Amino acid sequence: MASILIVDDDAELCNLLRLYLGRLGHCVSVVHGGQEALAFLEGCTPDLVVADVMMPGMDGLELLRRLRMERGLTVPVLVYTGCQEYLEEARRLGADACLAKGDSLQAFRDVVTGLLKSKEARRLCPEGTHAQAS
């Protein structure tokens, strides 16, 4: 189905999400920090990035800022964090969606599915070529 990069320093959560998304048919890669994510993204571009905010070294907000403002990466980014106070900043920096880690796996799945569908729709109908309603 889709390739997904998970960026989180919580190894247990990463394993849970990798298994869950893998069972949904996705190819999942995991890195444990912002610098690792930047290095990973030098070699390939996944269909979706799922990033935590609170990580040692480069946090998820700085990663998001670099992806959007320095690299111009347009891949959808889901910020998935336990710190709700960072969600508005994540949106301002260009996150396509934000979820609290306390939300259900069903909510997580729904957001991931929606982001992947919107990415596919953008690929099939590039900016400026959308059909006009009569």
Keywords:
single chain; alpha/beta; five-stranded parallel sheet; disordered C terminus; 134 residues
Tell how many strands the DSSP assignment holds.
5
Structural class: alpha/beta
Mean pLDDT: 88
Helix content bin: 40-55%
CATH topology heading: Rossmann fold
**What is the CA-CA span between the terminal residues?**
34 Å
- The shape, in one word, is globular
Number of domains: 1
Reading the helices and strands in chain order gives: EHEHEHEHEH
Query: What is the alpha-carbon Rg in Å?
Result: 15 Å
Q: By CATH's scheme, which homologous superfamily applies?
A: Response regulator
How many helices does DSSP assign? 5
Q: What's the story with the biggest beta sheet? A: 5 strands, parallel
Q: Uncertain spans, ≥5 residues at pLDDT below 50?
A: 125-134
Share in β-strands: 15-25%
The CATH architecture term is 3-Layer(aba) Sandwich
Query: How would you write the strand order of the largest sheet?
Result: 2-1-3-4-5
CATH class: Alpha Beta
What is the compact description of this entry?
This protein is of the alpha/beta class and 134 residues long.
Give a written overview of the molecule:
The chain has 134 residues and is α/β, with parallel strands linked by helices. The protein has a single domain, classed as 3-Layer(aba) Sandwich (Rossmann fold), CATH 3.40.50. It has helices at residues 11-23, 34-43, 60-70, 87-92, 105-124; strands at residues 3-7, 27-31, 48-51, 77-81, 97-100. The relative contact order is 0.15. Mean pLDDT is 88; it is low at 125-134.
